[in-house]
Every structure is written in structure tokens, then in C-alpha cells.
Records
---
Amino acid sequence: MAACGGVPLRSLPRLMQLSQQLLEANPAEFRVALQVDARLVPPAGAVPLLIIKVEPRTAGEFEAIDKSCLCS
């Protein structure tokens, strides 16, 4: 989580506690909420791209996730 931009420092301890619970979670029940800074406006005609990349700290701990999608 240290490399994630925009994660409030006060949230990090809670996120660290959730790490094992997130690994065991049912993917159908897992949701992510994003808070977007309204000051970050893409150029006219541009479409934002959401990139989600999750890698295990130790190789083989779980299958890595690397997804991207256009946000329109």
C-alpha cells in the first residue's frame, strides 16, 4: 500500500489488518470504492483508464491481478 497514491495515512493500519480477509474473500462479494479528485480533469475527448494491479508480496501466495478498463 505504500506505493498507492491518494490513500490517507490514517487508512493504512486498517487496510493492513484486512489483507488476509481480502485474500479469503469471495470475489463475487468484493467491491472497491474510488474517490476521484474533481481537480483531475482529463483533456477534452479523453476517456479515463482504470488500472488495477495486485501482486503478492511473496511469489505464489495468490494469483496476481492485472486488469484495466475504460471508464466512460
---
Amino acid sequence: MTESFLARIGEHLRDQGRRVDHRGTSAHGDPPTYLLDGALDRAEIEGRFDLGPLARWSMLPTRGWCLTDLATWTWFEGTATGGAWLPGSVDRSGERVRLGWPSQEPRLVRERLVPTLEQQLAVLAGRLDGARLVAELGGQSAWGVITPREGVPTARLRASLAELLSAIGDGTGRPEDLPAWLGDARVGDRDQAWWDGWVARAGEPVEPSERSLLRAEAHWTRDHLLQALAPGERTWWVAQAVDVPDGLALRVVTATSHVSSSLAWPLHRAGAVDCRRDVLPEGVLGVPARWVSAADPGPDGLLVAEAHRLLGLPDRLPFVLDRSGFWQHAVDHPLTLDAGSTPAPGIGVSPRAAGGLYVDGSEIVGTAVPRAPRPSGGRRRWWWRR
């Protein structure tokens, strides 16, 4: 597994005399974790490192700030809560080390099919069938339900996102070209009164839970956001938008399996109070199956070619998009590699009991043979978290 950029942060804290333990992936699929003895000081970390869109902050109730690497899904957390953090409390006067930028991750820097600006704007305006677009593009995607504040129509969320994309253009936009409603999370005083006032002026609710969520994402200045959405650094592209009873269901083509806060932050500033990834009703974002041939270029074609070579499957297979955002082809029997068989570089062997192969965004999976129940009622079987 590729080493996480969080290792650099661990080295920095150890150099400061702090104790940092590292746990690898557990037998049950729990992600690798760096554990700091004490509180993880977000202001200190942001003052030392220039964190890109692959870094995501969250707040844990009993452990304080937690930093996640979205490329490897590695966590860095402390054992205690720390002091209050405010957007203006970070000292960025010194030279900072860039971490968590897609251009630093070789496996993420590759040619991929993504929607054009015109296609994204057409999807948001309702002029283009996003389901067909997703099927044509393939690749990894993620989706969520965007809940607007009371009185904010989903049309405003669509229009605001379209305004942001238009301002960014081909990546040559300037900070002053970005919409005024974005604001700037890194200006103002460092006290709680300023933060409450800034939140209130933006029309956001100021309940503790909402304030905590906004703080987790409030590290995007205009110039920083432009850097995160520049060619070679961007991690999301709008591919589908559907109005649902709770708000706006949005699917984006992603460079990783999780969406960066470089999307969630503008959505909050545009009028969203919740951006959650949840199980949608069947058919809401219905995407037709796509056929992939072993002769097709790219990782999906290689996946089918290896399944044909190693597992004896046909050299052209249909894939359907599951509600986790993965393209999947499933067979009705286990898929087990012969002893000594090795997939091509870039193709992984599924940890599922029924076997299979996978690549970023796509997988070929087998079906386990049902076991006869034991006289005692059977035993619990572990499941793997993606």
C-alpha cells in the first residue's frame, strides 16, 4: 500500500518529542491509523504544512481533531481534545511543506475521462442526462444528498455551483473572479465572537453541531480553493444532479473514493446545511450498465483482460454502478486465483471471501457458496468494509 502523507506529520511530531504510534490495516479492514499521545493541534499542523484537497479534517467527540488522507484512507488522531481552533488562529508566516496534493500522488495523476465544463454546466441546468454521462465516462464516482437551508431552493444550489465552475473555467481563473458568496475562511479576528458573527452574516445556523462541521471545512481561502481546483490538483467533477425530497442528489466523478471538502465547503457557502453520503432509493440516480472490453484502454480494460486471463471470464463484460460509487461486475460463483497466479501491476485481489479482482473505481466479484447452517445456529461471519 502507498505510504500516506500523514507519515510526514508523524515524523514532524516525533521530532518535537511527541509520542506517535502507527497501526496498520487490521484483520477486519479498519484503516491504518496514526495515534498521537495527547491532542492533535490543528493550528500547529496547518502552520507547518500546506494541506491540499486530499486532506480532510473532522472533529471526534472525545479525541478532538482528526486528519484523514483521502487517497489512502489513513487517519491521524489524538487521545484527547485540544483547545478551540478558529480559521484566523493559524500562523502561516513561515515556509510550509505541501502535503495532500494530488500532483504528489503518482497513482492519482493519470489521464481519466471526466466531464467537460460545458457538460457539467448542462447537467446542473438540467439540459443533459447525467445518468448517460456517468455510463459513458466510467471511472470512480461518489454521490451524496445536499440538504439546503430552509428557504433555499435546490435551484440556487445548482446555480451557485455552476457560477463557481464558470469562474474557475480551465483553471486560469483569479481569486477575484470567484463568486462573492464564497467569502474567505482565513480572515478576521481569532476569537469566538468573530467566528459566530462570520457564520451569522453568512446566514448559516450557529448550533454547536453545525458550527463544528463548518469549522472542519473552513480552511479554504479563495486562492487556496483555486489551487485545489486547478488542472492536476482537482479531485471532483459534477456528473449528475437530481432533485429529491430532501434536497439535491449529486454524483461527481472523483479521483478518490471520497469527496474533498473543496466541494463541500462551496456547497455550505452556497446554502447547504448538510452534505451527506447516504443510501439513496433505488432508481434515483439510475445509471445504465456499461460494457468494457479487454481491448479498451485504461484500467477498466486491463481489469477485464486480467479477469479473462486469470479467471476464464469473457473478454467483454457489463458493469453496473452500485450505490457506493463502484462499477461492479458480479458472477454467481466464487472467483479464486490459481496458486502462483499474479495479476498485472495495478490490479488488486479482492479480500472478499468469494474472491475477485479490482482496480480504482471498478471491481469483479464472486458470490460465496452458502454454507449449511450449523446445529448450534451457525456462526457470525465477518464482513469487509470497502
---
Amino acid sequence: MKKTAILTALAAITILASCAEVPDDVISRNNEREAQQNAAQTESKENEKVDFIDGEAVRADADEAIKMKLSNFTLRDGISVDLPKEFIHCDFVHMVDRSEEGKRLSELFFSEEELSKVNVEKHSERLSDVVDDENRPDPNIITSSGFHSEEAGLHFYVWDNGFICYMKPQFIVNFGDGTVIKEYNLDLGDDLSDKYTLSGKEVTVAAAAEKGQEWLDQIYKRQIEPEYDYKIKRISVVSDDLGELSFHLYACKVYNGVEIDSLCVKALDGVIYREVDSMELITADGSEFGWFSTGDGPVSTVLGNKVSQIVSLSSALKYIEKTFTDFDRVMTIDEINLIYTVSPQYDTESGMRYDSPGTKCTGSLAWEFVIDAPASQKSENSENCKYILIDAETGELDYQFDN
């Protein structure tokens, strides 16, 4: 199992336009974004790709759309679409100076006895050799606060950009990728009554899901980032090198009833791709979470304005039906979601990091179609996920099928 999500994360305090005076640069970005959106909508309409409809008509259209009969795709039986009460455009930003909260955050995750064995200290680390501008702070040097003690079996760090990770003894001593025994997708209604033996105790997947949701609501939401809701999406049963089982729970942020995509647009050596960056909790006994990482995907809202029209789901389905005609079989659409996509705005060719503190990110509402496909054809970068995306604000198409 990949652990790329441990490298960094995005988190900050939500700043909505309605809560404070809107800065000039935000107004400028908003106007620029609106102009780009209008241009993209015009092009989509002229090319007859998709239809844009008023927000109040979207729900009725979606109800009819999931009844459509298609030739190249079939919709999973019982598929449904969750929609917010209103449609809001959001941009995002990486946090700055979160490492100042190291001591407070460590006290949420560790007992007094555990903390008596370690010291929370400040650290600086260079994440890239790229030098940006000699006249301003190097964005590739990041400050963190925390500790790492193999003797105590404890690990904890919070970075300036909001990334948080902690590990307890069972994971710091015997940490490995392990082998996935089985996966459960909560959105697909998988049966969670299966039992597994964790540290000598029988634990159901449902009990782990309930415990994880409680942790996110009571610890993370209440005491770290109350601006969002959190949702357990997937649970993996993993066997480590010694044959011991653990539950790995993956979650996402939800803003205004819309999931913030855990597949964040990034660049590596100038190549754009989307990579899984879910929040992750791991339990080895079913009662305590000995590992937690915020992942890279969660981000903080810096702008929210109502969108009057979005792409209708019915026209989005017709568009992908006309576009994708070369499959060797009828493909099943397992999920249809309205999500927020996240695209960091940085120089992808220079080697600069996408996750530097303060990096601005463009967000957009998008229709996501999750496609069922043989495991051998699924993409490594997206953690075995094939998808089609249609930007609901502009009509632009994106997809990932190939390895």
C-alpha cells in the first residue's frame, strides 16, 4: 500500500468572502475566474458539448439522468447522486505557520505518559534544491514541529503547510506497506458486517467505520478543523509482514455538502497527474488509532461565491457516451459524484513544490464518473481508480484510464 500521502498535506482556517472584507487580489482572481468560466461555457455551448442549467433544475435533471439508457456505459444498479442545497465555487490555499500548533496538537493525540518520553521541537527541512527568489523566503524550506523516538515508539510532526502525521509503537516498530486482504467501499454500500481478528479480538468492519467517524467528528473536526465535515470513504484490511491484521480507513473533507477531491492535481518532472491523498487512520486493535495522516488532499477554502448555472448531469452523460466509443466492452459507472477538484497554481516545470505554505489552488465543481475496470488496467498513480471528470462550471473534460 502506498504511503505517499505521508509526505505533505493542505490545511488552514476557512476564510469566506461573507465573513470579512474581501481583499483586492481575491476580487481580481474572482473576476478573472468568472471571465474564464464564461469563455469556457461559451465554447462548450457553441460546440454543443454540454448544457448549462440553473441550479434549482439540477436535482430534477439528475434524478432523470440516472435512469438513462446508454450504449457504451451502464449505470450500477441502485446508483444515486448526492447534491448540495446550493452550488458554490471555491478556491483553496495551503496553510502557513501551522507548526506553531505543535504542542497543542500533540496533546490531542498522545497521553501525558507518552508525552513525558519525548520533546516537541522545531525543525527545518529543505524539500527541494530549487531556489526561487533570493529576495523572499525559500518556499522549499519547510518548518515543522514534533518528535521522532524509536525508543519510545512515538512519532509526530505538524508542518507549516498543515500536514499532520503521528504514529504509535505498533506502527513505528513494525511499519511496512503490507498486503491488502480486502477492501470495502462505503459509498457502494458494501457489507461491513465481516469480522477480522485484530490483536486477538474479533472486530467488524462496521465497528471500525463507526469508531473512525467518531474520531474524525470528536477529535479532528471539533478541535482541529471545525469548518468542514469528514466522511469515511473506504476501508482496507491489511496484513503486515508478520501476518498481523489492521484496518486502514480513508476519509475526505466535505464542504457545503460537496466532497473535496482526494485525487489532487500535481506535477512530477513536469508531468501532470492526479494522486490519492486521502486522510488516513489505522487501527491494529479496533479501539485505538495508532496512525493518522492528513494526506495531501484536504485543503482550505479561501473564496466561495454562488454559481448560477452548472453542467447538467444528463448532458454530461450524453457527452461521455459520444466521446468514449472504443471500449471492448460496456463499462460500468459505479459512482457519480459532484466534487471539488483542486489544482495547485505553481511552476510545474521548474521543480517547485506544489505544497509550499501559502500556495494558492484553483478549485472547481466537477462531475466525477468512477469507472469499473479490470485490476490489470487500473492506474497506479490514482490508487486503482479510473475516472472521467467533466468540470461542472466550464464543461471541460478530463479522464484517466491508462497505466
---
Amino acid sequence: MIRVHIFKGVLLIILLASITAPDSMAKPVMGDGFPTGQETPEGVASDFARAFIQQDDALYRRLCIPSLGAAKVRSEYLKFFDGTSQALRLAKKDNKPSPNRSQ
């Protein structure tokens, strides 16, 4: 009987602590309602989507990791990275429409 009361007491303490505890996993949110920042996978994914939607090569470059490979792998990564960044820059310059792009 005492075990049941102890269990209920511990359960009540855990419940109250979880209700009153601040949300330590709160994600920073942009004006569009989606998360931002590199603290969470969701924030990074949303920022990548923003870079492509807004055709923002500067944001794209800030989000990508530096090339860490050697020789062939490094050159292939840099070719892809620079090509994607250039495509974003050209698309914005040509003013090609992109869904939800802020004009």
C-alpha cells in the first residue's frame, strides 16, 4: 500500500514538473511560421527551403558545410556547391519566378 502511495506521489511530481518546466526545445520561428537556425534539423531544412524559394545564394552558402574531402571528392563537392550557388544567383538575376518568392 505504501508503494502505491509513493508511486502516485512520484508520478504527481513528474507530472507537475513537466507542466511547469519551460520549453527548452522551443525553436526560433521566422515570420513565415517555420523554424530557423542550425540548432534543430527542422530549422536547417526550413532555411534550405527558404534559400531555394527566395533564390538566395548567400543564405545557401551560409548553410552548407565546408568541403572536407580530399582530391576528387573535394573537387566534385565544390563543383556541385558552386554550380548550385551560381544557379540560384542567375535565377534571381533573371528574375525567374519561384513559388512563394518574396518580390
